[in-house]
Amino acid sequence: MSERLQNAVAISETGGRLPVVNGESDRAKPTVRFLSTEREWNAPRVQEAWRRLMAASANPSALFQSPEWFENKHKTKREELRIAVVENDGTITAIVPLLLGKQEFDLKLWRTRFRTAQLLGGEGLTQEEAYESLFETIFQTFDDVDAIHFRLLSTESLCWKAVQSSQAGLVHVHDQLKMYIVDLPQSFDEYLAARFDSKHRGNLKRRVKLLREQGEHRLWRCSACTASPECARLREKGELRLQRISAPEDVPEFLRAGGQVAQASWQAAKADYLIKETPAWKAHLTDLAKRGLLRSYLLWCGPQPCAYKLGFQGGGYYYGSSTGYDQSMAKFSPGTVILLLTIEDLIQHNHPGKLNFGEGEDEYKREFATQAVEVANVTMLRPSILGTLRVAGFETYRFLKYVRRRKKDWAEKARDSFSKRWRMGRSKGKIHVARLGQRGCGYLSERMRIARIGKRV
User: Fold this and answer.
1) What are the structural domain ranges in the chain?
2) Mean pLDDT score, 61-81
3) ∠ CA 73-76-81 to the nearest 5 degrees?
4) At what angle are helices 279-290 and 251-263 packed, to 10 degrees?
5) CATH superfamily assigned to domain 3-177+377-383
6) pTM
């Protein structure tokens, strides 16, 4: 049996022992291998290295590259997944979960779709020197992969530095934005005092009071009291309450009530990520609950749900995935209320350490966050003529967006300047007319006084 065939057999027999097959001269170079079966990535050696690297990771999105999340995607989503294992001198130095599939990029004027290898969590569990070998091996191993995609890649990470200096492909940065994070203290009052002034705290409490007018807020769990007389009494009385969803038996009601809220939300006609009462969603969330990763919320106002929050917890972070509220109750700020009560519950129960708002720069995220991390969406395309054309298309689209934004800013400034000058002109005109009126009145008064004197004479 040849040495290469012996090494291939050794991989399957040892369940993750990845020998170097390129000879003695390559032992100092990182060797990259890809695992595609459960038997390979569930091997004790791979799992031990995976968890060791997870514990040392500072990635805010590390949950999405954890073994539990990877297994959930494999079993419930049926997506094409791989584990890239980087080994140096017989030691696993990097684990990089990959998602293979078609990805669409909407450039407004046109849409382009091609096959990518996306790094789950935005980056790999590895050191900077291993990235170049990883990028080269991905393009060499997967002939049909046109690009490597990095979603929400931190600009402070080693992966960002490696991508910027890489010679393995053509790099395009789609956009740079901020990921907002809340450092959760040990008490809710401490968080409020450190983040908001007294006036703002009063405004937040008044928002909660608007939804709590029918009764007292109470945190309860559906799995413990759905059929109890106390639960029925609370529903009839109409109290505002927050329901935590973390057990598998809570998932059906969460999907039913949350799906009802999602259909009444403003995002219903625009977003496809809203929760729905479907078998796929049920299997996905139930499996996450069994793995201890699910932590979502429902906000009930009387017998009706008015808001929901889909979230996950793991690795010292709570990840808020999406929020929806009934648009008919928008004047009572149910979105703000459920976020405030969620932060309170995170601090008081199973404290995660930090809350990650995820992608987006919405105003409420800036309002509640205590820090912001610079992140970017990056694509590394295969070095080829087609890749060059795609990069040119991306760059053209980004330039047009910049011109449009500048034109919009200029138009707003011109409009504001014209409006200001017009208001000032009107104000000056009124003052001028008033002065003329005063002068005219004075002139008439003087003529009348002279006329009266003449009559007397």
Assistant:
1) 3-177+377-383, 185-352
2) 91
3) 35
4) 130
5) Gcn5-related N-acetyltransferase (GNAT) (3.40.630.30)
6) 0.76
